[in-house]
Specification:
Helix content is about 50%, strand content about 20%. It has about 280 residues and is α+β, with helices and mostly antiparallel strands. The strands form 2 sheets. The protein has a 5-stranded antiparallel β-sheet. It has a 4-stranded antiparallel β-sheet with strand order 7-8-6-9, with helices on one face. The two termini are about 55 Å apart.
Length: about 280
């Protein structure tokens, strides 16, 4: 190994050749023995990984976003360790494995630059805590609830039920809007009402609709504001809050109940549109 570090690439190639020659001197029985040891070690590694996952799930100090990455790293490390221990039983030294990894590492690095870029993106996303698992994010590449952050990509589940995989190397360079960073979301429902209607009556009908939706939070309470005027019409915006988990049923239910409540109060809603903002809880 010292020769490797001192002399560079030519000795790397020589060391690799020596390693391959040593493999040819190993008998069939030794190979079978090493294979048996490897199988046992991999089984033990599997149970260790499962135990590690259980510990992670119980821990409240480690973010869920880190779970997949940590499990991947631990599993990979245990597999490498198992291979080196099994090889050592037939006379292959750990230093020989390190030489092989050093020689192959350069070639692999050149071949998988995109993979390394994704891994770097994963580190940036996790260290920056831009979003967590179960956050709802919007990006140019897609929008949805974050279900998994692994070394190569981030998995989103869209509102329509589609699964979106975005490479980490792409995601950390894009603009990311985290709609649930404060665990509450506000729906801004804007609609147009004829100017002949009393604003107090419109407010009563709108808040009545909000009161029918169990997902609407009372703190902060829903409010109705005048957002503009057009010829013969008044634009209103209903602001209503919900928890991040209840946002979609709240928004959909509120849009439906507005129509019902306005009809019951005799108010004509001539136009409506929905926009979403997120405010600190």
């Amino acid at each position: 190994m010292n020769r490797l570090m001192a002399d560079g690439v030519p000795d790397n190639a020589e060391a690799l050749q020596e390693f391959l020659d040593s493999l040819s001197n190993i008998g069939v029985r030794q190979w079978l023995f090493a294979l048996g040891v490897l199988v046992i070690l991999l089984i033990v590694s599997h149970f260790l990984v499962r135990l590690f996952i259980k510990r992670l799930n119980r821990s409240e100090r480690i973010s869920r976003s880190l779970h997949t990455v940590l499990v991947t790293v631990v599993r990979f490390a245990l597999i490498l360790l198992s291979i080196m221990i099994a090889g050592n039983t037939v006379g292959i030294s750990v230093s020989a494995f390190l030489v092989v990894f050093a020689v192959l590492g350069t070639a692999i690095t050149l071949a998988v630059q995109g993979v390394l870029s994704n891994i770097a993106g994963c580190i940036i996303l996790l260290s920056g805590r831009i979003f967590e698992v179960e956050d709802y994010i919007e990006t140019p590449s897609g929008s949805g609830t974050v279900k998994e952050i692994n070394l190569l990509n981030t998995k989103l589940l869209s509102y329509e039920g589609a699964t979106i995989y975005i490479p980490n190397s792409v995601l950390y360079t894009e603009t990311v809007t985290n709609q649930t960073s404060f665990k509450k979301r506000r729906a801004n429902i804007t609609f147009r009402v004829s100017a002949k209607h009393d604003p107090n009556a419109v407010r009563e009908a709108a808040l009545d609709a909000a009161g029918r939706i169990p997902y609407v939070l009372h703190d902060p309470a829903p409010i109705l504001v005048v957002s503009g005027y057009t010829a013969g019409h008044v634009n209103y915006t209903l602001l209503a809050w919900a928890t991040a988990d209840d946002y979609w049923p709240m928004r959909n239910g509120l849009t439906e109940q507005l129509y019902t409540s306005f009809k019951e109060h005799g108010i004509e809603m001539t136009d409506k549109s929905v926009s979403v903002l997120v405010k600190d809880s």
